[in-house]
Amino acid sequence: MNLRTILILGALSAFGPLAIDFYLPGFPAMALAFATDEKHIQTTLAVYFLGLSIGQLVYGPMADRFGRRVPLLIGVSLFTLASLACAFAPTLDALILARFVQALGGCAGMVLSRAIVSDKCDAVASAKVFSQLMLVMGLAPILAPMLGGVLVNAFGWQSIFIALTLFSALCSLAVTLGLPESLPATQPRQPLSGALRQYGSLLKDRIFLGHALTGGIALAGMFAYIAGSPFVFIKLYGVPAEHYGWLFGSNAAGFILVAQVNARLLAKRGPAFLLARTVWVYLLAGLALLAVSALQPVRLWPLLIPLFVCIASLGCIIPNASACAMNGQGARAGSASALLGSVQFSVAAGAAAMVSLLHDGTAVPMALVISVCGLVAVAIAMATRRLQFSRAV
Length: 393
Known about the structure:
Elements: H1 3-13, H2 15-21, H3 27-33, H4 38-41, H5 43-66, H6 69-87, H7 92-120, H8 123-155, H9 158-178, H10 195-204, H11 206-236, H12 241-265, H13 271-295, H14 301-326, H15 333-357, H16 364-392
Helix pairs in contact: 1-7, 1-8, 1-9, 5-6, 5-7, 5-15, 6-7, 6-9, 7-8, 7-15, 8-12, 8-14, 11-14, 11-15, 11-16, 12-14, 13-14, 13-16, 15-16
């Protein structure tokens, strides 16, 4: 896959992280503008997550029926228009509706970038490309809040959505001019009427579902970390809010680094081999994190070491799990990508909610959810690995 295509797919993959992390610094200003509190502004984030879960399941069958380009252009255009509507929303209800539509458009890039990679690459090459795309997934949470803060301070919260509008418009132009249709003309097109049947057959495919759940449950640990780390770092250990980004960024840097190392390792070992080993690293680091959290150390650094290993290992787990799940999907790659994303995102969002439900004023809830995610991910990964071996024999 050439560099131009990878750059375009990277930009499309950034829609989700940007639309989530970019506007977070604008919450106080938005609450003031709509005469409400930040708790109600957070509804715009929750509705975006809902739109992502629903929208992915829509684009999959569309991609298998009409190809990749048409649904992708529709989604990016929808994201552009919805971003503009967010910037000029007169009421909070209007903003919430616009955010939902924005999510419906933004998830097209997430679904179809995976499908395009699957069209063009085998399992090993797919894992390499997914590892490169992890660079975007790792950098966005670091850069987006900082850039968003600069825009809010200089031009107001509306400027964030104006910037998203311009970004998505440029992506639409890039797709139009530089991203040809990847679904082969000889490939049979799947009818929309068979969408539910297609999803049903994928859910019955235990190898696909095993890899999807392995990646999704491991990713759930990252969502648990995102949900719990502000309390643990800032409230529990007194890290100044302005320094929180440095701790968050150091873990994201580990994630990026391991993803790039994974791309190198794939030249010698396949994605299934690396996935089966890395989930154990994730589990052991998670158990170490839980043990340290239970001791409630006075200093923060004993928690940071196993936490760093957990988040960094995801740079290997997520691209390899995605590549294994998408391998050999062929004509139903769009539906497979949609179900993969929806399953992973739903499980991950549930883990973030569990951290809040278990909150007890310590770091244990976050560590417990991460370690349980590691335990379940290992169990599913090993069962899937055994099933692959038995089928091969």
